[in-house]
Design goal:
With 327 residues, the chain is an alpha+beta fold. It has 16 helices and six strands. It starts with a strand and ends with a helix.
């Protein structure tokens, strides 16, 4: 690759194909702007000379650097100019240059996978050659989901890019339509905080409620009860998320939710510490309970067993069994 001095006006920054070899999805260029103003452009960008026009170039690597130089008043910059590369070779060059210099955020990983697929890579090649370098599981379904993230709304993609929204949660939004997707993201992921399993269950409950109540998700998630939870400044995002999930589950399963409240209240009467857990079967489908004891020594184990035995004598467990058997 030869290093040339290239006029910025001769570099394609805006045509339909200007980003053919680019993977950039970074919103903040302030740090780069400061660096270039302080010490100039340290690393030359990489360009390809266009064959159909004199002295015009396509960008292989360095779009952000070129834009910052342009905004800083540069008329020309140093660039490495490549020749005789295939599209696949240019894409690989850009990929490895970025991989070694800065890495990729989650949206950029999706862009990488999509562009290699469009260049002619099979899913097998993506799984064996590209996905491992990105830290993406070599699984076709997961790769497809990553690429599908690119169809999400801009604000959601930004939250994924800056690690506010993890990809597994973004995957859950893909199947929703635009209006539903926006309010689910806002209420469950931006205004509150829930884990992936809670999100799966809550979205499933919302879809069921749509059919049962014949109302949309927007109406369900804009209810007065949920608005009050979101506006509660005394609660943190995790607490708000738990309350919203609980409310939606109660709406979907009112009878089961009532039994869960009774069961939880009775378990609190046991006065057990956090090393002992009492659980019922899923949706109270069975008539048994499961008790889990965690102990680091014999004394703690003995104390917990004695506490359980005392509750048996006092009849608290009888109340618990009556709840789970009352179907």
């Amino acid at each position: 690759m030869n290093i040339n001095r290239v006029l910025i006006n001769n570099i394609d920054l805006s045509s339909v194909d200007h980003d053919r070899y680019l993977f950039n999805y970074r919103q903040d260029s302030n740090a780069l702007m400061s660096s270039i103003k302080e010490v100039g452009l340290i690393n030359p960008v990489i360009l390809k000379k266009n064959q159909d026009a004199d002295e015009t170039y396509s960008i292989i690597c360095g779009y952000q650097r070129i834009k910052v130089c342009q905004e800083s008043g540069y008329e020309s910059i140093e660039a490495k100019v490549v020749d005789d590369f295939t599209d696949e070779g240019l894409l690989l060059l850009s990929f490895h240059d970025n991989l070694s210099s800065r890495g990729f955020n989650e949206i950029e990983k999706a862009i990488v996978l999509k562009k290699f697929l469009e260049t002619g890579y099979s899913y097998d090649r993506l799984m064996s050659e590209i996905a491992p370098l990105l830290g993406v599981p070599p699984n076709k379904n997961i790769i497809v989901k990553h690429i599908d993230i690119l169809a999400l709304d801009t604000e959601i993609k930004k939250s994924v890019a800056v690690d506010e929204l993890e990809p597994k949660k973004a995957f859950l939004l893909i199947t929703l339509d635009g209006v539903e997707r926006d309010i689910v993201w806002r209420v469950l992921f931006r205004e509150s905080s829930i884990n992936v399993n809670e999100a799966k269950e809550t979205i499933r409950n919302l879809l069921d409620l749509k059919q049962i109540k014949q109302v949309g998700m927007v109406e369900l998630l804009s209810s007065k009860e949920i608005s009050l939870i979101i506006s509660d400044n005394k609660s943190n995002k995790r607490q708000r998320g738990e309350r919203i999930c609980r409310l939606i589950k109660t709406m979907r399963y009112p009878v089961i939710s009532k039994k869960e409240d009774e069961f939880d209240n009775s378990c609190r009467e046991l006065g057990l510490d956090n090393d002992v857990r009492v659980n019922h079967s899923r949706y109270f489908e069975g008539d048994e309970i499961r008790i889990t004891i965690r102990a680091s020594n014999e004394e703690k184990l003995k104390a917990n067993i004695e506490k359980l035995h005392s509750n048996l004598k006092n009849g608290v467990f009888k109340k618990i069994f009556s709840i789970i058997k009352n179907n």
